[in-house]
Amino acid sequence: MLSGLLALTGLTGASAGRLSAGLLDKVRAHDNAPTGVIVRFGFSDADNAQGRQSFKALRRQLKNTLAALGPKAGFVNTAMKRGGAELWLYQSVYLKLSPVQALQLSTLPVVDEVFENFKVQLPKVQASTVKALSAASAPTGTPDPLRAVGAPQAWAAGLKGSGVRIGHLDTGIDASHPELKGKLMAFAEFDANGDRVTGSKPHDSEQHGTHTAGLLVGKTVGIAPEARLISALVLPGGEGTFAQVIAGMQWVLDPDNNADTDDGANVVSMSLGLPGTSDAFVVPVQNMLRAGVVPVFAVGNFGPQPGSTGSPGNIPDAVGVGAVDTGGKVASFSSRGPVKWSGAIEGSFIKPDVAAPGVAITSSFPGGKYGVLSGSSQAAPIVAGAVAVMMGAKPGSSVPDLKQALFQSASNKGKKDNQTGYGVINLPGALGKLGVALASGSAGTSATGQTPPPTGPAGYRFCVLEGQECKFSGQKQVAFGAAGRYLSGLTTDGFRCTVAEWGSDPVPGKAKACYIKDDKPTP
């Protein structure tokens, strides 16, 4: 009978391509044990719905497709009742089927593909610094990684991500941590099948999720302390499944399952994936973008070899984030491009898009503690939080405008490479590209027009606040610091006003600035 079914469905023809190789091998081996599969249906955007209304269109399309399955609807409905899940963001369902049932579904014209539910995990760092610190070791002053990207200058102008919702998919969150109290809007846990875990309360199954959450919205360690989180636990113990992640993604986008209410994430931070390219993540990311949500994903810790990025961070339209060390150089572990896509996307692309500090980063740990972790996992929430600050500063900004502002203000000055992309992000510069001015070196006023620039060493004139680019031509004497404590030197054609650039911090915990004066008196 099996051989007849194989012949009937034409497994050597086009229909065989809709069943994954792993499932096909099980059919041929007469393995009839139920297995978790993803059934992906054809996607159509015929109604051209945009924004959050696209979620309603996606749900409607999936329900219509399931209703049109005909004779196969019987065992599909049975499987749905036994733990199946609707993954409307991907126009698919998770079902537990025998390989032969999966084969039968794969022959239907409405089915594009059937494949096994695969594992997704945190990108591990081989030589990461991982240690738990006591609550007494909470950082004092502004942490170096946030100063390195210019966060204090945005905060000084009152820009801290207010009104913005960040989707956070990770190992969970300790919402009672002092850094995170009052920052959690909603929490949900999902199982490997993509079903929501009933009665689950906010908790962290490991420590990674609380750490990344702190970098997003932490009171003292977060870049967007006035933004709020919608947090999905999709990686229990650091590992989950594709169905689990997609269920979490669609939930953070629309927590109440009602597209008419605007309660979902504006930007999504994910530090997870798998090496190489994965077509399965492409449609969910495209649908996220279609809704006007910014996807900010780690590119992985599979470096230093070229071509080592992971999905979904290496999807061309996603904001892929790499990690740099305390000197602003690409971290040894950070994944590099290029990435070659063949399938849902065709072509070779430069990745990552941008970079942020990701070596020995201090943030919150469960139980009111603090800890140090390294990875692109830490760089991604710093970038996602920066995007939240940008959104809060200029509500209504489009995804392309936000991405371009982020890219063109980064440290590589508009050029892109396969190590750090456009370079380390510069939050004040990105805000400036959006038309949100924080300070002017010539006029000497803040965004409100009331605050004068800080005073520097005698004979020097103010150039920029910490985290920005001090631009000039020729050779000049330069200084960096605050409150009467400065580092000085001589340089040519500009420099970045950061601790990383100078290699030392003259006034730890204080917001600093940079100053210049002509190397030789003007005749």
From TrEMBL:
Keyword entries, A-Z: Hydrolase, Protease, Serine protease
InterPro entries the UniProt entry points to: Peptidase_S8/S53_dom, Peptidase_S8/S53_dom_sf, Peptidase_S8_subtilisin-like, Peptidase_S8_subtilisin-rel
Any one Gene Ontology molecular-function term assigned to this protein's record: peptidase activity
Active site per UniProt: 170 (charge relay system), 208 (charge relay system), 377 (charge relay system)
GO biological process terms, semicolon-separated: proteolysis
Pfam name, any one: Peptidase_S8
Protein's UniProt name: Serine protease
Residue ranges occupied by any Peptidase S8/S53 domain in the UniProt entry: 161-423
Taxonomic source organism: Deinococcus aerophilus
Annotated family: Belongs to the peptidase S8 family.
Classification via PANTHER family: CEREVISIN-RELATED, PEPTIDASE S8
